[in-house]
Design a protein that fits this description.
Length: 146
């Protein structure tokens, strides 16, 4: 709780309950001049810790109520979840990169095997064709004889 004169009337931050500081030069009053209530993110004028502040000027009293929470504390769960997402994205990316690497190796091996077989397939097919001809000829002859 801060008076309109900028003097801290009541304050608690953890175990610190110090009062009487003059914060009239601080960020709160620049925002309070623009709107009677609102929020802002800034370093605390007293502790220097980056905080998310919410404030409201009291209409019947010359006081401003201010509540601030450490940005790190307020966003701790978000940062924790974000870090887990980064790790998961990294693992998935490595898996995809590995799968792509395996596919490329398979394609290259297939191309090498195909190119090495093309010179031999002409010669290999001829004996196979002649064997087929011989089998079909022998069947034909067997049919004629029987």
């Amino acid at each position: 709780m801060i008076g309109l004169d900028g003097v801290v009337r009541a304050r608690q931050s953890g175990e610190d309950r110090e009062i009487g500081q003059n914060v009239s030069f601080g960020t709160l009053f620049s925002y309070q001049r623009q709107a009677e209530e609102g929020y802002y993110i800034s370093e605390s004028d007293i502790s220097g810790i980056r905080r998310i502040f919410s404030y409201q000027a009291m209409t019947d009293y010359p006081l401003i109520l201010v509540v601030g929470v450490s940005e790190a504390d307020a966003l701790a769960e978000f940062y924790n979840r974000r870090d887990k997402y980064y790790v998961a994205a990294g693992v998935v990316s490595l898996f995809i990169a590995g799968a792509i690497g395996v596919l490329i190796r398979m394609i290259l091996a297939r191309q090498r095997a195909k190119s090495s077989n093309t010179c031999c397939t002409r010669y290999q097919k001829q004996p196979v064709r002649s064997m087929i001809r011989e089998k079909s000829t022998s069947r034909f002859i067997k049919r004629l004889v029987n």
